[in-house]
Design a protein that fits this description.
single chain; mainly alpha; 4 helices; 64% helix
Length: 126
């Protein structure tokens, strides 16, 4: 049931990074704690940098492995799920982080392992 390939993930990264940067302005995040605003913007810029540096289809510099990228994404999902409790976010501030945390966790969880089938790589001895 895992269907999110490395290629699909790479095309999701830029819109997600920009959304994390722009949505706090549009949604007026930070009403319960200014950290709700700054955390999203900061993680958005970090996600943009991570995407630029990741070794995948849309990476530009390609110095970070995709595996490390997935570990960072998983860590961000956990951060987003815990942030409303740690920083006492309420209402829209809390829902924004819970929804984004679940979404990132789903993307990472539904990642399709792309290792090649070793049997197709073997040479027949006949």
């Amino acid at each position: 049931m895992r269907f999110i390939t490395k290629k699909i993930h790479s095309y999701l990264d830029y819109p997600v990074a920009f959304a994390l940067i722009i949505l706090p302005f549009l949604l007026n995040l930070g009403s319960t704690n200014p950290m709700a605003f700054y955390l999203s913007v900061g993680v958005g810029f970090a996600a943009l940098l991570l995407t630029i540096l990741t070794n995948h289809q849309t990476g530009i510099v390609k110095v970070i492995s995709y595996k490390v990228h997935l570990i960072v994404d998983f860590s961000v999902a956990i951060l987003f799920l815990l942030a409303p409790f740690v920083f006492s976010f309420e209402g829209l501030d809390a829902y924004f982080y819970w929804i984004n945390g679940v979404a990132v966790l789903l993307v990472v969880s539904l990642h399709k392992n792309e290792t090649k089938d070793r049997s197709s790589l073997s040479v027949s001895s006949n």
